[in-house]
User: Fold these one by one.
Assistant:
Number 1:
Amino acid sequence: MNNPEPKIKWVDIVSFNAEKDAAKVVARCILEAGEIRFEGEDFIIDNIKTGVPSVSDAKLITPQDGEKFLKALSDQYRSAYLFATDVQSGDAVKDFKIPPMKKVE
């Protein structure tokens, strides 16, 4: 029996504040029914909605590229303080949860 394709795919863009040891989702890009939509802070959305370069060949990947755009976001935003999650999928968007951190002694 084949599993149906997830209805929704998304990437969260997360800001991490080391001083407060806290992370929050500042933007979310959602692919549903073949269309990308954006939620979150305007300064992030304005920066990405025109497209992001692919890591492999620096070609501009735009929201019209669908899942390829989500993957490019995930590849491009990888700093310690602003990062994009891997592409997630499901029947509904789930809240971002930061994994517990272990203190190094």
Number 2:
Amino acid sequence: MAQHSFVTQWDADSGVFQAEQPQPGGREGRSATSVRTRVEFRAEVSVSIAEGDQVCAIDVRELPQHVAAAMPQARDEETVGHAWLDTGWLWIPLSHRPPDTELTGVADLVLHFEQDVLAGLSLRFLEGEPTP
């Protein structure tokens, strides 16, 4: 698996998180033949936040079966910057920094896959969510 990371944006006030796998040359750098698939669902999500309000990990529980089947299993090798299936849920470690806070709640999610690889994720916590 090629090394990559996600460019992220977290808005604590609105409860919106976005992560996008960068492409060489930006969006215009995407291959004309690449197929981008969008999957939408609602699930329990945990957003781990390190010092300085930096999101250091995302955990999505209750993945739809067809999404879980597409995710690689977590391994002991370098995991930061990759999306993994870990004990049945999606785990995206974004840094090696330890979390200071974990926010958990139900969120609407959109996953973007490009050629069977998670290329982007956005989530919005429901009204009244998340809770520390």
